[in-house]
Amino acid sequence: MIQLPLRMSDLMEMLVRRGFLWQSFEIYGGMAGFIDYAPLGNNLRRKIENIWREFFVINERSVEIDTPLIGIEEVFIASGHATSFVDIAIECEKCGRVYRADHYIKEKLNLEVEASMNAIKEVLQTYDLKCECGGKFREPFYMNLMFSTKIGAGKGKSAYLRPETAQGIFVAFKRLATYFREKLPFGVAQIGRAFRNEISPRQGVIRLREFNQAELEFFVHPREKKHPNFHEVANDELTLVDKFEKTHRISLAKAVEKGIIANEVLAYFIGKTRRFLLKIGIKDEKLRFRQHKDDERAHYASDCWDAEALTSFGWIEIVGIADRGNYDLSRHSKFSGEDLSVFVPYPKPVVIKKKKPVPKMNVLGPVFKERAKKIAEALERAEVSSDFIELEIDGERIRLSSEFFEVKEVEEEVTGERVIPHVIEPSFGLDRISYAVLEHCYDKDIVEGEERRVLRLKRWVAPIEVAVLPLLSREPFTTKALEIFSMLKRNGFYADYDDSGSIGRRYRRYDEIGTPFCITVDHQTFEDGTVTIRDRDTTGQVRVLISDLPRILRELFSTERSIEDFGEKFR
RNA sequence: GCGCAGGUAGUCUAGUGGUAGGACAACGGCUUUCCAGGCCGUUAGCCCGGGUUCAAAUCCCGGCCUGCGCACCA
User: Fold this and answer.
1) How far apart are CA A571 and CA A424, in angstroms?
2) Structural domain includes residue A131
3) Residue A102 CA to nucleotide B25 C1', Å?
């Protein structure tokens, strides 16, 4: 068992004070469900986003697009959000409890009721339904979980802020399929904001009204839910909690074999998601993948696994990996009237032997005159069932006996079929992920008898990568340190300079925000052109030449090598 | 949305009707200062609105925010 941290306020206090997160609209009293990404938090999230791109765009057959945050009403009617996102709610006059009307009716009366205002009002009246506390209900009202808006002047056109980035991808599917030259599988990613008008957002960054998503829609052939790179993660062992709440510590290959995970594509993305999360600093022992129970899945999903991280809020969902089937594409196809299928050629054309009627024009012509051509065309499309064929031409039924056609055995070559792809969707909540990383990296230790707060971020997500510090805050130390500071910035590092307070105080400042390395200019610098590099986690230092700094730092930031590989130990 | 608790410098906190105090942090200076050093100085606060009162951080009402429980989380 893992012990839950007792308090989280220690960390939250630091995040606000040092500039990771701030309450939005603070000077006007704030508004629940919105946060500002302060300088350090913004940098952290951006770095996490870029690593996500490496994993899910660059190293997949994937592309990234960016579509509007505002979606016209049609999109969300087709997607189902307009009906399943806009619930009818009832509120008790006496105790003030709010229920979803259709849920409450089903529970109390065991009645499946249409989710329309009239139907619900009728049921409430007919059965004189009361609240559990005995109180009467007020008039039912719409509870809209999407932010609505209008486009244009006057009455305008109804629109909503998108509740997920995914719909922008489905809506552009026709163009995307062409872009990929109609060849499955392919993935389309989008990173951006999404909006949900939560009734009562709580728990700080965990439930926001405006949040950041990174979503990948990976389109596959419905009968070939395999991924070419599955072998890369097949032997990874991880913790799975299935829909019967049974926990497995098992390899992905075995989980697919045993049918715990429905298919290989899902398993592949579960594995890849885990590797991504470990890369950015989520702890394996505080990570699990939980399968949605049958009654828990969203309206579009056929199987769904959540990555959950253990935090001071308990296990929180940070990634959802869903098999959305062809739900979205077939809905958008139906509502837009566009064909959203892809032509998939068979490996070899299939030859089908078929009995086909061939019209005898010399018989048809004299009898049907000018209609003969239309009849012949219809005849060629018809099936042969007996020795006569019935056709419907311009609303008139015509019966043709076998004298008008002969039946020939023909071979037809079928080169492929049109399919509506299925989509596997790994959907990442970047805000929750960033927060979970911060919690998992937050640590305290003892250095020379003093308690030290240290954020053990992975090097590649640290918002400030390197701090340049003069040992003494006076000449010539300061000028030399400033020189190194601008040299490192020119080399593309997120660097900082600090000459305020004692050197020990400054080391602690950077430990607290997770800066992995500090460069110190000391007396020896002026004798031999060297400085020290200090490691955040060990507080050890080595001496290196100033001119070697860019090369050494680049190496340190792309590996987990120790600073001791690069110079003589100093302290 | 409902209920309970709370809201005082950047952070933590003292203050039950009469001039708002401290610690830490931050900033400036001095000190040859390698892991929150010492000394001097500076900046900075009663969540918002209304009411009661000669007088409100303090009492009352409403709102906003934070935490917890219930409900909600497609």
Assistant:
1) 52
2) yes
3) 54
Q: Residue A211 carries which side chain, given as an amino acid letter?
A: F
For residue A390 the two structure tokens come to 């019935």
Tell me the pTM. Answer: 0.86
Q: How many domains does chain A have?
A: 4
- Residues A137 and A92: their CA atoms lie apart, in Å, by 4
Count of CB atoms situated within 10 Å of the CB of A64 = 15
Domain of residue A377 covers: 344-415
A477 and A375 belong to one structural domain: no
* Residues A317, A169 share a domain: yes
ipTM of the complex: 0.91
CATH of the domain at A239: 3.30.930.10
Give the pLDDT means over successive 10-residue stretches in chain A (571 positions): 47 93 89 93 97 97 96 92 72 66 73 71 79 70 80 85 96 96 96 89 84 97 94 97 93 96 95 98 96 81 90 91 95 95 89 71 68 65 68 67 71 86 96 95 90 95 97 94 97 96 96 97 95 96 97 98 95 82
Protein-contacted positions of strand B (CB under 7 Å): 1-3, 7, 10-12, 25-28, 30-37, 47-48, 63-68, 70-74
Q: Are A340 and A330 in contact (CB under 8 A)?
A: yes
Residue with tokens 């989280």: A8
